[in-house]
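TICKET: design request
STATUS: open
ATTACHED STRUCTURE:
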């Protein structure tokens, strides 16, 4: 039996190529090896006030589903669902809430970050890691592929599982985070990590015109065309290399190192490869998003599959807690 993998993604807007190479692509690559569950974390998303609008959340959820289907997440291989289709996670989070202390949750970085930014913190933000523990434990996940920023949440999940097991008897196994070793950190247009909050992204489904305009914004220095250029210090190259096979990468490095490559030409090469990579994904996504009936079918099928797992697990949990007898 394959191990169970679960991960969730908040539907908070348009993904960029940093999201793709840093996380989304792994879900596609891993779906052949694992019994995979990937869900759209709509209940987590509404911890953010910007998403507290029904039309926005519904649209973001459909958009994100289309994004994942377009990049090759296959509903035959991966159970794709939305979190709110298993309201049991909120019930389970409540059972966990009653076992976890406030000072313990106050050490979670999601809470500390929100506090450091002087944000008004709703109880959902405070409870974020507990709901996440419920997401993971309710399907008995073995592995949770996450970025560095989410590692602590998986640690908290293990603590929560341990607390429940102590109180009610052995119920949950201990999930492990799966940090994919060679996950690419994609630099943004300005050379910092690509991130929506830095405004330096290249959207994964950008139009050709957007691609051209964004690449034009990459800052360059005043080296002459004839000068040899160190690719590793060049942000045009550092973005470009994530798109290339190792042979293509060697060839591009050689061009930078030889001299004679203008920044204009370097950018044109990057634009061409971005378009080559993005255009087919964008076209596939455009097809998928048109077919609302298909999107709803994928969600409904995923819901049926995950609910079968969840209902069995919750029956066991409720018996232990004593809410069912
Ligand atoms: N917290 C994750 C994020 O912000 C999303 C998420 C919610 C998640 N529940 C999860 C990830 C369960 C992995 C497992 O990206």
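STATUS: resolved
RESOLUTION: sequence designed for all positions
ATTACHED SEQUENCE:
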């Amino acid at each position: 039996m394959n191990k169970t993998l679960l991960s969730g993604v908040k539907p908070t807007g348009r993904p960029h190529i940093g999201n793709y190479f840093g996380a989304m692509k792994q879900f596609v690559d891993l779906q052949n090896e694992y019994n995979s569950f990937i869900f759209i974390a709509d209940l987590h998303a509404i911890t953010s006030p910007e998403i507290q609008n029904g039309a926005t959340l519904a649209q973001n959820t459909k958009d994100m589903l289309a994004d994942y289907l377009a990049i090759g997440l296959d509903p035959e291989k991966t159970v794709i669902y939305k979190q709110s289709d298993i309201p049991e996670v909120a019930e389970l989070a409540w059972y966990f809430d009653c076992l976890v202390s406030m000072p313990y949750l106050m050490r979670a970085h999601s809470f500390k970050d929100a506090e450091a930014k002087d944000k008004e913190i709703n109880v959902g933000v405070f409870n974020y890691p507990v709901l996440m523990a419920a997401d993971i434990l309710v399907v008995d996940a073995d592995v949770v592929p996450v970025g560095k920023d989410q590692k602590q949440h998986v640690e908290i999940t293990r603590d929560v599982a341990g607390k429940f097991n102590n109180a009610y008897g052995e119920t949950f196994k201990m999930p492990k985070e799966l940090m994919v070793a060679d996950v690419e950190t994609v630099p943004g247009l300005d050379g910092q990590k690509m991130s929506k909050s830095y405004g330096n992204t290249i959207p994964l489904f950008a139009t050709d015109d957007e691609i051209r305009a964004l690449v034009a914004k990459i800052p360059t220095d005043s080296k002459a065309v004839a000068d040899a250029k160190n690719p590793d210090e060049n942000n045009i190259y550092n973005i470009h290399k994530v798109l290339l096979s190792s042979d293509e990468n060697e060839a591009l490095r050689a061009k930078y190192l030889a001299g004679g490559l203008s920044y204009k030409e370097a950018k044109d090469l990057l634009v061409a490869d971005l378009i080559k990579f993005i255009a087919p994904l964008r076209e596939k996504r455009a097809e998928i998003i048109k077919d609302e009936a298909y999107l709803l079918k994928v969600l409904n099928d995923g819901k049926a599959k995950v609910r079968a797992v969840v209902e069995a697990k919750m029956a066991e949990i409720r018996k232990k807690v004593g809410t069912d007898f």
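CLOSING REMARK: The beta strands are 4-9, 35-40, 78-82, 143-145, 176-178. The CA atoms of residues 81 and 304 lie 9 Å apart.
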